[in-house]
Amino acid sequence: MDEFSKISIEEISNRDMLMIIKALEYTGENTKVSSFIELKNSIVKQLSMLTNTTEDEFISYLEKNC
Question: Which of 4, 12, 18, 57 gives 20 to 30 Å between its CA and that of 63?
């Protein structure tokens, strides 16, 4: 279980990452549970920082490369 403490972003495809982000957004909007939106926003923020882009640019990149 110690090996599972961190997941490498390299192991998640662009398509899967976009699906995770969109699923969190959809679920948050349709259940009104803010934790889903907060998690989505946190993931997008962190990934956009890693890629040195804005959050909108990061999402656009995923959408174009899936």
Answer: 4
